Amino acid sequence: MAASGARTLTRMNENPSPRVSFVSLGCPKALVDSERIVTRLRAEGYELSREHEGADVVLVNTCGFLDSAKAESLAAIGDALAKNGKVIVTGCMGAEPESITAVHPSVLAVTGPQQYEAVVSAVHDAVPPKHDPFLDLVPEQGIKLTPRHYAYLKISEGCNNRCTFCIIPKLRGDLVSRSAADVLREAERLVNAGVKELLVISQDTSAYGIDLKFAESKFRDHDVRAKFVDLARELGELGAWVRLHYVYPYPHVDDVMPLMAEGKVLPYLDIPMQHGSPSVLKRMRRPASQEKQLARITKWREEVPNLTLRSTFIVGFPGETEEEFEELLAFLDEAQLDRVGCFKFEPVRGAPANELENPVPDEVKAQRYARFMETQQKISAKRLRAKVGKREPVIIDSISGNTAIGRTRGDAPEIDGVVHVTSRRPLKVGEIATVKIERAEAYDLHGTVAGF
Ligand code: SF4
């Protein structure tokens, strides 16, 4: 999972994210609804609060199946009103709003079961979302308004890992991969509809297909295994840019490097590393924490010299010592990552990490965050400057008069930097132009279209 100061480098957390306290009552169907609502809110940058007190709003997903369940729901709403005051009610009891408002007239809004848009909109009204371009994989305007020339391609749901700071597996369950043919057919449809860039997403992209035992499925005239590298290769044949997000550094990720070297897949990897100290990674129970990440990065760069690496990290994880934090800074120095986001650890209700010993005091977290930022910003700026003078393919995202905004192969939409492009000829949105990079700012590049 995923990560200021610098626009694409690191992120200042001065503006805290809005916090929602969530109560989910009832059957598994209600739980699925809760999961969808929470996932949507998390994707929009809301944090989950452990307590009603201090949260910006409380959301109660009610059950109305039995009278006892109704009584329990009404009691939960009453408790939330007493402890917080700002309460939105959804779920089965919301099908009869007066049954709630008659007892609790001060609730902010009541929506019914499966009314995801309505409940999320009620949360927006109560406390607007804070967009974070470093964290949000999904752009601020939501997927449906994604420009026509790029599209998100979700290859699996859920996750088999059990990182101690994360509740996604509890909410979404274990990994469930789509068949390769299903993913490829969707990708093909998107490309046929004009999409020029496919953004592959999931909770753990490199684990794709493990649950299917890598089963084959027929796409066009041949069978394709549900395997990370096979899927990447097939996607690379569709004629669009293919960008891989949420890849963990398992050894088999090495297999995708030749595809990047050949230009089939973008030389870009989004790898949420979260820490550079083996002991902290162990406490986080991170996937691939035993792998030699630095050695792997060095090898990848030998094979794909223009590889852009993006990552996110957490500082102030429970028990993080000064020594472990310095290991993280040394890791940053060694790894020379291009784009990095950083979070101060915050407990998420229900996450096992909350029970770990020796929580790091807030002021220490803040100091470490600042030190992290200082170290990484220099690295990121240096890596961006190294692009000046080069010719880069740039995908054009928007045009205004004689200038356009685009992205190099090293920039994912919404979360990384952009290129400000000048051109003597008219450009089109979605076009991939060759741009001579002339100047680097802290986060963005400037350049001119090469040739006429
Ligand atoms: S358990 Fe770990 S790998 Fe899985 S979604 Fe959470 S942070 Fe990502």
How are the SSEs placed, and which strands pair?
Layout: E1 19-24, H1 28-43, E2 47-48, E3 57-62, H2 67-83, E4 87-91, H3 97-101, E5 109-110, H4 116-126, E6 150-154, E7 156-157, H5 168-172, E8 176-177, H6 180-192, E9 197-201, E10 216-219, E11 222-225, H7 228-236, E12 241-244, H8 257-261, E13 268-270, H9 278-284, H10 293-303, E14 308-315, H11 322-335, E15 339-344, H12 362-385, E16 391-400, E17 403-407, E18 419-422, E19 432-440, E20 445-449
Parallel strand pairs: 1-2, 1-3, 3-4, 4-5, 6-9, 9-12, 13-14, 14-15, 18-20
Antiparallel strand pairs: 7-8, 10-11, 16-17, 16-19, 17-18, 19-20
Helix pairs in contact: 11-12
Structure commentary:
- The protein is of the alpha/beta class and 452 residues long.
- It has 3 domains: 108 residues, Methylthiotransferase, N-terminal domain (Rossmann fold); 243 residues, tm_1862 like domain (pyruvate-formate lyase- activating enzyme); 59 residues, OB fold (Dihydrolipoamide Acetyltransferase, E2P).
- Helices cover 30% and strands 21% of the residues.
- The protein has a 5-stranded parallel β-sheet with strand order 2-1-3-4-5, with helices on both faces. Strands 16-17-18-20-19 form a 5-stranded mixed beta barrel. A 3-stranded parallel β-sheet has the order 6-9-12, covered by helices on one side.
- It is globular, with a radius of gyration of 23 Å.
- 46% of the residues are buried.
- The N terminus is likely disordered.
- Iron/sulfur cluster binds next to helix 5.
